[in-house]
Write a structure and sequence with these properties.
Blueprint lengths: L3 H10 L23 H11 L11 E5 L5 H18 L4 E7 L9 H10 L12 H13 L4 E7 L1 H8 L2 H8 L8 E8 L10 H7 L2 E5 L4 H15 L9 H11 L4 H17 L7 H21 L3 H18 L5 E2 H15 L6 H13 L3 E7 L5 E7 L6 H12 L2
Helix pairs in contact: 2-3, 4-5, 7-8, 9-10, 9-11, 10-11, 11-12, 13-14, 13-15, 13-16
The chain binds a DNA duplex (33 and 33 nucleotides) through helix 15, strand 7 and strand 8.
Length: 403
DNA sequence: CGAGATTCATGTGAAGTATACCTTTAGGCTTAA
DNA sequence: AAGCCTAAAGGTATACTTCACATGAATCTCGTA
């Protein structure tokens, strides 16, 4: 049996590899944003008028994940905030991530969310959407101020609920007497704005900023900078940062991923009582990140979604040997047969069809619509997660569903 | 033999329903003048 | 009479169901070479 007392003693006295772990976390906002000078200057220029209490142009920012959009915007708006406070200018900045399921993924919930950040209590349901808009207007118009609304991952919201919301938001200045509102939209989808209503597009993207992917060298710089703040010196194996940035550059220059990789690798090294982070830890970290991400997604799905997913897993493992594809009909049959034992009311096939589409969107499965000619039309489904994770997820699902 | 019709299994859009929650309003009760 | 509480009435957003029609390539049909 392990001597816990000794273990914890050792744990405390042991030197940590980290000096300041927060510098590697995705919420961290550095003092300087590296390799984004041009974007920072442009955006600062566009937003600067708020400090004279003038309304700036609406801004639309796009670029792939991990290209620094969110950090840059947060960095700049934070500066604006402090300067505004110092100079007694009334500027209010609201940040909302639109993709959060059940938080800000519909018109009602988004407006409610924004209103809440103005200190208004809004019930989750029951109020007319117009009423929520009214509360929202009043909250903003209470005093003269400039309001910046940052809508992160706005493409997700529009894809789900249409572009009317943005249309409404860009027009609210006409309704306000005292305040002015500017919208900053952030999108991961590069072609997103092409599918917008032209009116919406022109009003949202009065200004457009593109964030190109980082190259391997730039990511290296970023990692160096951050790891200097985060680690005690000499804790990183030679060449680790190079390797780490190479990993990330492989994935379209995703800096967030690189930082996460480094952090998790270090956490693993620390747990293994190593004195430095080694390259082998990167591989372990890559696995762990992927695993954690998927487990998190699966865990937070509603029960019905979990059961559908469970059925897909079951079919996938039983079909693996026979090299047979999975179709909607099979999934639905199995799903329905499992419903009673989990105490769930079975949904209609129509709904399950949508559920499968959503699971596809989440990347947990790959589903594509195919026509089998004489034998009808269906979705051909395959698993979108590494096989090694399947048993663990199976357990997770069965536990969660009480199977 | 090949062009066009047929067919199947389910995709997909629109409209309707159930649920859970909201505000308003009318009625009943209490209380203080 | 005024104030307060309660319950019913009337309303909404969301998740889901119902209904109806759309899809699209393998297969069938049938006229033609």
């Amino acid at each position: 049996m392990m001597d816990l007392g000794k273990y914890f003693e050792d744990y405390i006295t042991k030197e940590s590899l980290f000096k300041n772990k927060t510098a590697l976390q995705s919420t961290f906002i550095p003092k300087e944003i590296m390799h984004r000078e041009e974007q920072v200057n442009q955006i600062a220029g566009i937003l600067a008028p708020v400090l004279r209490e003038e309304c700036p142009s609406n801004l639309f920012v796009y670029g792939k994940t991990g290209t620094g959009k969110t950090v840059t915007i947060k960095h700049i708006t934070e500066h604006i905030n402090t300067t505004a406070k110092k100079r007694k200018k009334s500027v209010k900045i609201v940040y909302v991530n639109c993709k959060l399921k059940r938080i800000a993924d519909t018109e009602y919930r988004l407006i409610a969310m924004i209103s809440r950040s103005f200190g208004k209590e809004i019930p989750v349901t029951g109020l007319p959407t117009d009423e929520v808009y009214n509360i929202f207007y009043k909250a903003i118009d209470l005093k003269k101020q400039i309001v910046l609304i940052i809508l992160d991952e706005i493409d997700q919201l529009v894809k789900k609920t249409g572009d009317e919301i943005i249309y409404n938001l860009t027009r609210i200045n006409g309704e306000l007497k005292n305040s002015k509102v500017a919208i900053i939209g952030i999108s991961n989808d590069l072609v997103f704005s092409n599918n917008l209503d032209p009116r919406v597009k022109s009003s949202l993207s009065e200004e457009e900023i593109i964030f190109p992917p980082y190259n391997a060298l730039q990511i290296q710089d970023i990692l160096k900078e951050r790891s200097e703040a985060a680690f005690k010196s000499g804790c990183l194996e030679e060449g680790l940062i190079q390797k780490c940035s190479a990993y990330a550059a492989r994935e379209h220059g995703d800096a967030r991923r690189a930082l996460e990789l480094l952090r998790v690798a270090a956490e693993i090294a620390e747990r293994e009582s190593e004195t430095s982070v080694k390259i082998k830890h990167l591989d372990l970290a890559e696995e762990k990140i992927e695993k954690d991400r998927i487990v998190e997604i699966v865990k937070t799905q509603p029960k019905q979604f979990q059961l559908v997913l469970h059925s897909i897993f079951k079919l996938s493992s039983s079909n693996k040997t026979r090299n047979k594809c999975i179709f909607t009909g099979d999934i639905y049959e199995l799903y329905k047969s499992k419903c009673p034992s989990t105490g769930l009311r079975s949904l209609t096939q129509r709904r399950v069809s949508d559920v499968i589409a959503e699971l596809d969107m989440l990347g947990l499965i790959n589903a594509r619509v195919i026509s089998k000619g004489r034998f009808g039309r269906t979705r051909e489904v395959s698993l979108g997660i590494p096989e090694s994770l399947q048993p663990q997820l199976m357990n997770l699902l069965e536990e969660s569903l009480g199977l």
